[in-house]
Structure formats: structure tokens, C-alpha cells
Amino acid sequence: MAxxxxxxxxxxxxxxxxxxxxxxxxxVCCLLEPCxxxxxxxxxxxxxxxALRWMAAERRYRCGALSVPATVFGWGDGRLGRCLTxxxxxxxxxxxxxxxxxxxxxxxx
Length: 109
Ligand code: SF4
Ligand code: SF4
What we know:
109 residues; mainly alpha; 5 helices; 2 strands; globular; binds iron/sulfur cluster
């Protein structure tokens, strides 16, 4: 029998789509375990990523490393921070596979 996992997820979050479907921000993948960028930020390999942010107005999760990098990485929103954000965003988007569709094959019960 497969091991069971309990994931605490916002009740308003959208249901997880099928593997390969467009990402809808359900948050399941990042709540299960961090991606490589998230491992560095969270300093762990299992459990929710510290960079994951619930966007109440949008009723979805977003990667904080992409959406609010100045906060997540702590480099502020001054001139240097804005430069770092502009430099890092495309790299981060590539590293986390943003826009490539859902790559999580875990099925919530
Ligand atoms: S995509 Fe972002 S929120 Fe999700 S695990 Fe990676 S760093 Fe964390
Ligand atoms: S990649 Fe899949 S599991 Fe992760 S937030 Fe997007 S839709 Fe949800």
C-alpha cells in the first residue's frame, strides 16, 4: 500500500489538475515538498516550501521566489533589490519550470 501524506491546503484553493495540464496554483506540489530552489530556501527536502504564498484575492498559491523575490530573498525593494529581481526572475522561472504545466503526479484523496 502506498504511503499516505497529509497536506494542509487552503480550502479555497483550486483542485489539482491532471499531470501536464496548465498550472492553476493549487499549491499541492510545493506543499508536498520543495523544488530545488525551495530546498535551498526551506533548508529541507520534505514538507511545505517556505516560499509558497497564498494569494487570497486570486484564490490560488504562487511561488514567492517569483512573485515577491525581494521579500523571500530579503534583498529589499531598493534600487539594488530591483536590479536583483529583474536579473533573477527569468532564471528562477526556468529553474522552477514556470509555465510548463503541472509536473506533479501525486493525486489528493
Ligand atoms: S516553485 Fe517556489 S514555492 Fe514552489 S517549491 Fe519551488 S521555490 Fe518553493
Ligand atoms: S504545478 Fe501542479 S500541483 Fe503544482 S501548483 Fe501547479 S497545478 Fe498545482
